[in-house]
Amino acid sequence: MGDEEISFFAKYKDWVVIKKKEIDKDTEDKEILAILASINSTTARKAYDFAGIDKAAIDKYVAELVKGKRKSLSNLAEIFGSLKQNELKEKLTSMCKDPSFYPFAETYFINSILKSLNYSPFIDSEVVEEVYPDMKMPKPRGRVSKK
Length: 147
Description:
By secondary structure, the chain is an alpha+beta fold. The chain is built from six helices and two strands; from the N terminus they run E-E-H-H-H-H-H-H. The chain has two domains: 4-50 and 123-131, no CATH class; 55-116, no CATH class. Helix content is 49%, strand content 12%. Helix 2 crosses helix 5.
């Protein structure tokens, strides 16, 4: 059997991403996990740029909700417990170009809350490095907001 690979290429206007991993008999599962996590992180971040939502406004709202809070399930429960569904929906819908984009805003909001409290809603590069400290994950180019 010949060598295999995982490849992801994207080019849209000024956005270019190339992620490639050659796979052979010596490739470890953690290396495959790392490239897939990297692809997921890159595409998830970029997808919100096309979702028709005001990310900056949502980020500001999230910052208000998590201010002074540290990673703990009780803080997470407190934040989500304090939200009223109808009020949240109204607020997030106002941050959308079109009301039908609310599910995108809601997803971004929930992920932002989790990330702000240092929970990862999916396997990302930071989690891979935490589990496998010997692996150095390439950092994304350009500005990535610190949460």
